[in-house]
Design brief:
single chain; alpha+beta; Heat Shock Protein 90; 6-stranded antiparallel sheet; 54% helix
Length: 677
């Protein structure tokens, strides 16, 4: 403490008495000295010395003493040196009262001046402290706003707080599970660092424990009297410790601690330390918000990728593996699986993703027993999280336990109200993110959608195939009925008319003979029309010779010249041949009716188990796939066989019809295709 500050610690009454006695002593000393001086020069030198002493008193002690000393000195100079002078003897009653009044007034004036000076100095110091504190807080806030790395930010907070508060050390620590304290950052003066630690139990008496239990700032000023200390408070002769809570979104995240090894910390340390702890809480909240925002964006991107795959009608097996990979990478897991439940409390891994160095040891059917997401989700039908995997050999929980998984989450996959399976993510290093089990649900909903779409698509394909098969069967039945019924009767009738009826015509009835010839000719034309209709229902050339002769027949009968290139040898499955034949027939018919084309190119070939068909004309274009029932029927037939049909017809640029059909197992497979005209 500076000399000029010592007086402030005296009680006011004691300071007044001391100031009065100082003034009285100055008066007596001045009287004795001045009574023995006869020279004005010496008196002037004495006055100068008194002014210097007065200034020193005001500077180094307090103005409360300087005013009485100055007043007493002036009275002594006036009394014992300036004429009329007084004898060097004790003043009489009247003079003594005057002297006391003068000294009392001087003491009061001095106290008023001293109080004002002390307030000014205190205000100046407070202003400087506030300015320093605000500057330190601004520097820390700047780091927070810039999103500085956590290590850099925490170290800066500890150093700023330590230098500003003039303490021997600062520590930032994080609470974990309300039982441990985890070291975050530390600053200390040389020789004042406590024992280092990474994490330690909250035991014994400590400021950290008090802050955690109360949620408020706490202090201990008698640390040397504490017998049982926490591990992080050992190894140093602490005298005083103050701690302030670090609160993040209403939760006691950690503690900011300041300590002294020389004596009690100032009374305002708690409040000033709290300012820094609030900045630490803000920085942590901001960092968490940035992480959450980044995680949200990554999650939405992953969901979009999965949704795009599902919307594209990808095979479920491909979807399972893709979703598992997205989930594993998004959550930082080491393993992610899509697990399908079977009726006998077993299941099968149908989708798998594993991180580097992780090999899932089980690939066969696994039991759904033990401790883990698979069993819990099967029993509850709800998302869950676990920090323990345990199960017998041959169970999915046992597989995760064998990998050393410490943290896992699972969410059910429900298809049309039925629990189909579970999505599981697991980690053997760091715990999965908070809420991972709920975030998994968004992915399992997409998996369920993919399964439902696949079921619907399979049902649609099966339904189309049944319709096409039924239509083909009906055509064959009608063709057979026409051949065996109406055609045979018409042939028999024509023969009867040419035979028995014509022979029964009497000679000379030429008009009757001509009429019979006309009826027989018309019967022949009707029979030809009936045969043409039968061929349209089920072309005989296709049934007898396959696509090559059937397409040649279509090309010869086309009203528009056709260039035909069929690179298919052998016979294909009957539904494939029918679909290709009817597609070409419909395209040629539409070209003749609407395209106003001068020619048509028909190309057909097989490649990698797929029949590729293309019909292109040079007509007016502008055709639409839904413009007529013919193409719609062809499209249904093609898609019922797992194929695709596309139509490209820009106005003025011709029309191209393309068909792709999976071959299955064609008759005569393996033969080399040969080009034809």
């Amino acid at each position: 403490m500076a000399p000029w500050e010592r007086a402030r610690w005296l009680p006011l009454g004691a300071e007044i008495v001391l100031a009065f006695m100082t003034g009285a002593g100055t008066f007596v000393l001045g009287a004795v000295v001045l009574a023995s001086i006869d020279s004005d020069v010496v008196a002037a030198l004495l006055g100068a010395v008194c002014l210097v002493a007065l200034t020193a008193i005001a500077r180094f002690t307090s103005v409360a003493y300087a005013v009485p000393v100055g007043m007493a000195g002036m009275l002594a100079f006036d009394w014992f040196y300036l004429p009329p002078t007084h004898p060097l003897e004790f003043p009489d009653t009247a003079n003594l009262v005057d002297l006391i009044v003068y000294l009392v007034v001087a003491v009061l004036l001095g106290e008023i001046a001293a109080h004002a000076a002390r307030r000014a100095r205190a205000a100046e110091r407070a202003h400087a402290d506030i300015a320093d504190e605000q500057a330190a807080l601004r520097r820390v806030a700047t780091l927070v706003a810039k999103g500085a790395p956590a290590d850099e930010l925490f170290a800066a907070v500890a150093a700023e707080a330590g230098n500003l508060l003039d303490v021997h050390g600062i520590r930032i620590a994080r609470y974990e599970d309300a039982t441990e304290l985890v070291h975050v950052a530390e600053w200390s003066k040389p020789g004042c660092a406590p024992a280092p630690y990474d994490r330690a139990k909250l035991e014994g008496t400590s400021v950290s424990g008090q802050v955690l239990s109360t949620g408020r700032a706490a202090r201990i000023d008698n640390y040397e009297d504490i017998a049982v200390r926490a591990p992080f408070a050992r190894g140093l002769d602490l005298k005083s410790v103050v701690g302030a809570p670090v609160v993040v979104e209403g939760r006691r995240w950690g503690v900011l601690i300041a300590w002294s090894v020389s004596g009690p910390l100032p009374a305002d340390t708690e409040g000033r330390l709290t300012g820094f702890s609030e900045l630490v809480g803000t920085a942590i909240a901001n960092a968490q918000a940035r992480v959450e925002l980044r995680n949200f964006a990554e999650e939405q991107a992953a969901l979009r990728r999965v949704a795009t795959l599902v919307a594209g009608g990808a095979d479920p097996a491909e979807t399972f593996g893709f979703v598992a990979a997205e989930v594993g990478q998004l959550f930082g897991a080491d393993l992610a699986v899509v697990f399908r439940y079977e009726p006998d409390r077993t299941g099968t891994v149908v989708g798998l993703w594993n991180g580097p160095g992780v090999e899932f040891p089980c690939t066969t059917r696994l039991g759904v027993t033990g401790v883990g997401p698979a069993a819990t989700v099967l029993e509850t039908g709800r998302p869950m999280r676990t920090e323990r995997f345990e199960g017998p050999d041959g169970s999915i929980a046992g597989c995760f336990a064998h990998l050393g998984a410490r943290s896992g989450a699972g969410a059910p996959i429900t298809v049309e109200g039925r629990l189909w399976g579970v999505m599981i993510a697991a980690s053997h290093a760091e715990p999965l993110p908070s809420g991972a089990e709920l975030r998994l649900a968004a992915f399992t909903e997409l998996v369920a959608t993919a399964l439902a779409d696949a079921d619907a698509q399979a049902a649609l394909t099966t339904s189309r195939a049944r319709i096409v098969t039924a239509a083909d069967t009906a055509r064959r039945r009608i063709e057979r009925d026409l051949h065996d019924g109406a055609q045979q009767r018409l042939v028999a009738l024509a023969l009867h008319l040419r035979g028995a009826v014509q022979q029964a015509v009497p000679p000379g009835a030429d008009h009757l003979t001509a009429e019979l010839d006309r009826v027989v000719a018309e019967l022949g034309e009707v029979l030809d029309d009936l045969r043409e209709l039968a061929r349209g229902l089920h072309p005989a050339a296709l049934a007898e010779g396959g696509l090559r002769p059937a397409l040649k027949m279509l090309a010869r009968r086309s009203a528009v010249p056709v260039s035909l290139d069929v690179r298919v040898d052998g016979r294909l499955l009957e539904p494939i041949e029918l679909a290709a034949y009817y597609a070409v027939s419909e395209a040629l018919t539409n070209t003749a009716k609407h395209a106003d084309a001068s020619g048509v190119d028909v190309r057909m070939e097989t490649d990698n188990g797929v029949l590729h068909l293309s019909v292109r004309d040079d007509g007016r274009g502008g055709a639409r796939a839904g413009g007529g029932s013919g193409l719609i029927g062809i499209k249904d037939r093609v898609e019922a066989l797992g194929g695709r049909l596309s139509l490209h017809s820009p106005p003025g640029a011709g029309t191209t019809l393309q068909v792709s059909l999976p071959l299955g197992t064609p008759n005569g497979a393996g033969s080399s295709p040969q080009p034809t005209e």
